[in-house]
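Duplicate of #3305? Posting structure anyway:
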């Protein structure tokens, strides 16, 4: 058990909170505030507890140097709107200017530090950089589930120097994900899609030992269909993963897991939104055509039936090129089946979450993870460095006065 907010007395303490404010920007405005909203419960709690709140996040990929267009100012503005409260902002995350601003903070005030990735020490987890950050605060809280799979200075390094606890968002993510991974009620169904087998090998291998059904779709399914000997035309396939796909299918026969592949698919004459398309059986893809969607009616019916019987479902990766409307059929059908099912459903992966959002079904899912890479690492059965680094409940908090 990791320490959480309730284990710490925050009154009058300077609290460095790692949040995931890696939001999409356009014209210096935040275009989607989901991630900021997800951090509000922790921030509002710390304000109520009369802490002095220092927020830090990365934003985009500045490559270890200052990039004007990746400053946190638009985020500060949006956060102030959402909190209904002033948010102070500094143009650096360490150094004199920051120390001055921090020293002037009153209890209950919020200060947003500058993009942590303006320093190469962030990604390198440089102890000097971490030490300078930690020196600003008395306590550290990690609420950035989306960055918990990375061992960076703001997720791991600072915990060397400060008592470290999980924020509410991080805690909720861990609860939801461990509920399905450690104590799934069967039938337990995993749906795996996305472009490539190679991105998801470790997830598939780990899930093979846990789930009752593994429904495959998207580019991943193409490689498995190829391994069954089907002609895949111009479909995205990974020739070098065919042997692996074959051995996984053989393995599944010895285990009590059923790997389910598309029966019929939506094919296109080119990779384009306005391509000509038709539905064919998965073993009838003509030369020059490619499967862009595991969304034929027979596939949808079979997958929906399995989901209907499920008690626990995890879903990662769209079943087709859902960015093109006519190839979103399989993905939409899965989202709809999950929305209608009583199963405990957890969705991980940025594109999968976006697909559910696009289908307008976000509110009908049990849990949509805010972390793409982090949820994948969790499904792989691996420990997340940003979580491992936090204090266990047993250890005592050093005095900070
Ligand atoms: P997530 O972000 O949910 O983990 P991935 O990033 O693994 O999902 O995969 C999403 C991408 O996979 C999407 O951009 C989608 O267009 C692509 N994709 C899905 N099916 C296919 C396919 N049959 N051919 C090519 N690309 C595909
Ligand atoms: Mg993705």
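Output from current build:
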């Amino acid at each position: 058990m990791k320490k959480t907010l309730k284990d710490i007395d925050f009154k009058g303490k300077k609290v460095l909170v790692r949040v995931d404010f890696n939001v999409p920007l356009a014209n210096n405005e935040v275009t989607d505030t989901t991630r900021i909203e997800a951090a509000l419960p922790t921030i509002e709690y710390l304000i109520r507890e009369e802490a002095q709140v220092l927020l830090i996040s990365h934003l985009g990929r500045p490559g270890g140097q200052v990039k004007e267009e990746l400053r946190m100012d638009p985020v500060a503005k949006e956060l102030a709107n959402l909190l209904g409260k002033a948010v102070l902002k500094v143009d650096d995350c360490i150094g004199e200017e920051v120390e001055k601003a921090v020293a002037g903070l009153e209890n209950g005030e919020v200060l947003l530090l500058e993009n942590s990735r303006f320093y190469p020490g962030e990604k390198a987890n440089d102890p000097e950089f971490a030490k300078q950050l930690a020196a600003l605060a008395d306590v550290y809280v990690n609420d950035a589930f989306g960055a918990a799979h990375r061992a960076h200075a703001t997720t791991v390094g600072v915990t060397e120097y400060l008592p470290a606890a999980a924020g509410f968002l991080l805690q909720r993510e861990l609860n939801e994900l461990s509920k399905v991974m450690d104590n799934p009620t069967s039938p337990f169904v995993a749906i795996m899609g996305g472009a490539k087998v190679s991105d998801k090998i470790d997830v598939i291998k780990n899930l093979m030992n846990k789930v009752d059904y593994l429904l495959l779709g998207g580019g991943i399914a193409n490689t498995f269909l190829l391994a069954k000997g089907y002609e895949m035309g111009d479909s995205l396939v990974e020739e070098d993963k065919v042997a692996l796909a074959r051995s996984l299918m053989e393995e599944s026969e010895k285990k009590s897991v059923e790997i389910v592949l598309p029966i019929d698919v939506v094919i296109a004459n080119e990779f384009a939104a306005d391509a000509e398309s038709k539905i064919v059986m998965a073993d009838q893809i003509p030369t020059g055509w490619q499967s862009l969607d595991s969304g034929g009616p027979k596939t949808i019916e079979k997958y929906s039936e399995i989901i209907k019987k499920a008690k626990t479902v995890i879903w990662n990766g769209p079943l087709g090129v859902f960015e093109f409307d006519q190839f979103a059929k399989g993905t939409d059908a899965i989202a709809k089946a999950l929305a209608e099912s009583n199963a405990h459903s957890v969705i991980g992966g940025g594109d999968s979450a976006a697909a559910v959002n696009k289908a307008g079904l976000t509110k009908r899912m049990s849990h949509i993870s805010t972390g793409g890479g982090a949820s994948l690492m969790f499904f792989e059965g691996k420990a997340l460095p940003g979580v491992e680094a936090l204090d266990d409940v047993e250890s005592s908090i050093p005095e900070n006065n």
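Confirmed duplicate; merging threads. Residues 193-195, 199, 218-219, 222, 236, 291-292, 316-318, 320-321, 323, 349-352, 372 surround adenosine-5'-diphosphate (ligand 1) (CB under 6 Å). The mean pLDDT is 95.
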